[in-house]
Amino acid sequence: MERATSLVVGDVDDLAPEDMRRLVTEAVAASGPLRGGTIAGVFEHPSMRTRSALGVAAAALGATPVFFTGDEIGIDTREAAEDVAEVLARHHRVVGARLRRHATFERMAPRFAGHQRPFVNLLTDRAHPTQAIADVITIHEALGTLEGVRIAWIGDANNVARSLAKAAGALGAEVRIAAPAGFQFSEADMAEIDAYLERAGRARGAIALFDSPTSAARGADVLSTDVWVSMGEDPAKRSAFEGWALTEALVAEASDEVGILHCLPAHRGEEIEASVLDGPHSWAFRQAGHRVTAMVRLLAFLVDRAGSGSIERW
Ligand code: CP
Ligand code: NVA
């Protein structure tokens, strides 16, 4: 469903497909539109890449980054999430948040919309849109297009997979999701993804679900995976993923020129073989580098849309 405001990015489908396309293909000259202002980053979970990219993007836009951990704010323990949002929206020109629960993001979002401030999801249990934009930028850089590119996701159909399916599917890729029983996309996930792909003009069937890693990997141009236990999840879940690692054997099933994606952090020897992550097919560190490309482009786009380029009066 489309959101009333276009300044809140809870997932990829908050961006119009044509805006997604621009973010992937068009470089921006960020000439300090937020000079004198701040960008806040709220992190209820640990982060390296996302927090770092937010800091770099702040510098590119001329803003000073201000970081908070979940503990020091105490969202819904020290004070209500809505109150936190109301105050941050009054202080900062842009706010990003990595939150344990997507529902908390949704409760905070209207406060930012009310103040015409961009509010960006920096990972929740449902979605990781800034990662997905980096992923499609990486694929586009390597292959020159997403059109017809066969992407196989191997492992847990999680937050990162959901956002990637939307982003890559909207840009014309054929996305195969291979996950063990119980960890595959739900019908509701598929309905949400298909709705976005429909907005992008894609026919149904661009996203296909598989119950075997080998059949999903066959002939793929890109293989992608992620940890088996996401932040905040029960480690007991791991036992369901035996036989689901991204191995050399799966790489051998894919196209000769296959590229390997992993959003990182990775566990070598668990969800991905070390020789795959560190091998000649790996794009994982280019992908990590493009977290900055994606963050700068997205924030520049939202700041421009918010029309908040002028220095404020105090
Ligand atoms: N991929 C990613 O989001 O990394 P961090 O958790 O380190 O930010
Ligand atoms: N799926 C992982 C991604 C980490 C960047 C998690 O949510 O922990």
TrEMBL record:
<dbReference type="GO" id="GO:0004585">
    <property type="term" value="F:ornithine carbamoyltransferase activity"/>
</dbReference>
<dbReference type="InterPro" id="IPR006132">
    <property type="entry name" value="Asp/Orn_carbamoyltranf_P-bd"/>
</dbReference>
<protein>
    <submittedName>
        <fullName>Aspartate/ornithine carbamoyltransferase Asp/Orn-binding region</fullName>
    </submittedName>
</protein>
<dbReference type="Pfam" id="PF00185">
    <property type="entry name" value="OTCace"/>
</dbReference>
<dbReference type="InterPro" id="IPR036901">
    <property type="entry name" value="Asp/Orn_carbamoylTrfase_sf"/>
</dbReference>
<dbReference type="Pfam" id="PF02729">
    <property type="entry name" value="OTCace_N"/>
</dbReference>
<keyword id="KW-0808">Transferase</keyword>
<dbReference type="InterPro" id="IPR006130">
    <property type="entry name" value="Asp/Orn_carbamoylTrfase"/>
</dbReference>
<dbReference type="GO" id="GO:0019240">
    <property type="term" value="P:citrulline biosynthetic process"/>
</dbReference>
<comment type="similarity">
    <text>Belongs to the aspartate/ornithine carbamoyltransferase superfamily.</text>
</comment>
<feature type="domain" description="Aspartate/ornithine carbamoyltransferase Asp/Orn-binding">
    <location>
        <begin position="147"/>
        <end position="301"/>
    </location>
</feature>
<dbReference type="GO" id="GO:0042450">
    <property type="term" value="P:L-arginine biosynthetic process via ornithine"/>
</dbReference>
<feature type="domain" description="Aspartate/ornithine carbamoyltransferase carbamoyl-P binding">
    <location>
        <begin position="26"/>
        <end position="141"/>
    </location>
</feature>
<dbReference type="InterPro" id="IPR006131">
    <property type="entry name" value="Asp_carbamoyltransf_Asp/Orn-bd"/>
</dbReference>
<dbReference type="GO" id="GO:0016597">
    <property type="term" value="F:amino acid binding"/>
</dbReference>
